[in-house]
Write a structure and sequence with these properties.
mainly alpha, globular, single chain
Length: about 200
């Protein structure tokens, strides 16, 4: 269940449907450029989140940051993103008027639109401590990367097929799921930071 929650959270944060307009504009209608930009964006997503999965905890230990504190911080980062998606606002306000090279697949499409601070925080906070668990999470990230690549590859026809209304509905649904995951991270992190909260009950 933890891996499923993490996968759903990463899918909501990366929001490949919401990135479609950026990819279409960057490619300028050229299918060859769509493939190049999509490949660079997905590789950036994969490498960034894999590094966060395997070495993120080591960085926390280096700066003496507890995992529960990082969960709270991650929840605070994710919650506004989810609320913006629900309200129909853009997750990022990048200026993409001068899109000209395939390197835009790395910045801003790969990072931070797909693998932004929210996605990195979620992976570091939810990464298992044992190596089999981290391998499983890495496999989940790889599967998500493959799925995102397929979505980006058909960005132009998919955006036309979905239409503006369906695109907004999907974006708001992803925002609702992301907000729920953010609250769950906050509650779990606060219980870890303040154990008394975990034993508090209501009533006699």
């Amino acid at each position: 269940m933890a891996l499923i929650n993490t996968a759903v959270g990463l899918l909501a944060i990366s929001s490949p449907i919401g990135v479609l307009p950026v990819v279409v504009k960057a490619a300028e209608g050229d299918p060859v450029r769509v493939r190049r930009i999509s490949r660079l964006a997905v590789l950036t997503f994969l490498f960034t989140l894999t590094a966060a999965c395997w070495w993120g905890q080591a960085l926390l230990d280096l700066f003496a940051i507890t995992l529960d504190s990082f969960r709270v911080a991650g929840g605070l980062i994710l919650l506004p993103i989810g609320l913006r998606l629900i309200e129909g606002q853009d997750v990022a306000s990048e200026d993409n008027d001068d899109l000209a090279t395939e390197t835009l697949g790395v910045v801003p499409i790969g990072l931070p639109l797909l693998a932004g601070p929210g996605a990195i925080s979620l992976v570091v906070a939810e990464a298992p401590t044992d190596w089999p668990g981290r391998l499983a999470l890495t496999a989940v990230i790889a599967l998500l990367a493959a799925g995102i690549y397929l979505v980006l590859m058909v960005s132009m026809p998919l955006r036309r097929a979905l239409g503006e209304l369906q695109e907004k509905v999907i974006s708001r649904l992803m925002g609702l799921l992301l907000s729920a995951i953010a609250v769950q991270m906050l509650v779990g992190g606060l219980k870890g930071c303040f154990p008394i909260l975990g034993g508090t009950t209501l009533g006699p």
